[in-house]
## 1
Amino acid sequence: MKYFDVAKLEDLEPGTCLSVELDNAPSVALFNVDGKILALNNTCPHAGGPLGEGTLDGEVVECPWHGWEFNVRTGACMENPTPEWAASCYQTRVENGVIQVAFPPEAA
Ligand code: FES
């Protein structure tokens, strides 16, 4: 597992989310939940919507396409809380104001 720079911390205010396109890696959705940075695979397990462009409420994001909700800490889908509908979680860290994400993802 290796960490990669994905965004500046200043671009992710508490209570907001962000989609990040990466070279040679899946697109990542970043979330700032009260200062804790969390990351999921950006591709919604339902039909591919960009979770990082959804609406964050606490630690739950609502997909912008059809409104399914996911816990951004666990990846669990609130509508279908089974492993096949969970979004993959990534470990994150912040180094010198830069958000880093570890690949590959953890099992949801
Ligand atoms: S693509 Fe996310 S809810 Fe349908």
## 2
Amino acid sequence: MEIEKTFIKTCLQCSKPITGRLDKKYCNDYCRNTYNNQTKRTADKQIQEVNSIIRKNRRILKTLCPAGKARVSKEVLDSMEYNYRFFSGIYRSPAPAKLVYFICYDYAFSPLNEEGENMALIVEKEDHFDEFFANPWSA
Ligand SMILES: [Zn+2]
């Protein structure tokens, strides 16, 4: 019958048809363990990749900011392949400045626009950076 075919499930690991309980996802413990280990490895790899991007961003900021504070043009960050998507934290300074700082561990940069030119204010991270977003809903 056509309807029965829709109930044939296959093992997430080896793709063989599963018999038995409807909620079974794997044919046996071996397939379940293998599948879970691979999923965990993939997740670990993605975490490592993001960590290494943030570490590279931090290295760039540190290189450009040897004295605690620096201003560079966006082109400099671009030329060093800074990845704006990833950071370890975010901080918005109170009014009137209201600068947004993208933190990479112990360094941070804030995008500025000065006379039409995209600049970055780079700073060594300050302790109060950790306080502002303790509760993002109250920000
Ligand atoms: Zn299987």
